[in-house]
Amino acid sequence: MESDFKLRAQGLTRDYAGTRAVDGVDIALAPGEILGLLGPNGAGKTTTLRMLAGTLAVTAGTVTLAGHDLAGEPQRAKQHLGYLPERPPVHPELTVDEYLGFCARLHAVPRRQRREAIAAARADCGLEDTGRRLIGHLSKGYQQRVGIAQAIVHRPDVVILDEPTAGLDPNQLRGIRELIARLSRAHSVIISSHILSEIQATAARVVIMHQGRIVMDEPLGETAAPVVEIALREAVTA
Ligand code: ATP
């Protein structure tokens, strides 16, 4: 049944100046699931995630959230989806709470609920003591936590994180992986990476993209891992 899935994309397609970057992608995200979108550079991951998040127009295809077509309901997308872009804007001059307050307003969190929403997002992201800190004074790992906090400040059903662990050191990486695992208690999550071990560390299912198409969609158990590795290697070297 359509509404068994939190988010469902069917036939997602995107052309850039006549070149097809994403070609007929079908993705279904179950409640509470962490789905990993894996693929080499240029495979079409970011383009797919932007179409899912509603920040990029589709050339063809549909995105539905609990059965509602998001194309005609941008407000629903704003309220029920959270999105961390691959290169999120950093606002070094703002405090964490100022920035989260701004994002809460953007996502139409009612004024009287904003303080509580910001505190909850900070707590979920391990940012309890940072509300008054300037973002520019935080480490890259903590700035990434702020990026995830802005994606969940309005308590969306679905959280879309584009390469959330890229460029982090091992310690920061561990913290963000744990944070993503915790997110699935309250949200369905899609994360992208071009590194298999990143997806293995966090996701229960992997979708591999290559040249704009899905070449594999598999649960990630121990037995599946070697198959996934072969598929990814083939995608990278094809
Ligand atoms: P990466 O891991 O490097 O971010 P990706 O899998 O996210 O790669 P996309 O960024 O979605 O891939 O790019 C898919 C294809 O679309 C690539 O060939 C890319 O060059 C092209 N592309 C992406 N954005 C644009 C754009 N704004 N204009 C033209 N072509 C684009």
TrEMBL record:
Gene Ontology MF: a single term: ATP hydrolysis activity
- Alphabetical keyword list: ATP-binding, Nucleotide-binding, Transport
- Please state every residue range assigned to the domain named ABC transporter: 7-236
Which family is annotated? Belongs to the ABC transporter superfamily.
This chain's protein is named ABC transporter ATP-binding protein
Which species is this record about? Salinisphaera orenii MK-B5
Organism lineage string: Bacteria, Pseudomonadati, Pseudomonadota, Gammaproteobacteria, Salinisphaerales
Which stretch of the full sequence is covered here?
Answer: 1 to 238 of 312
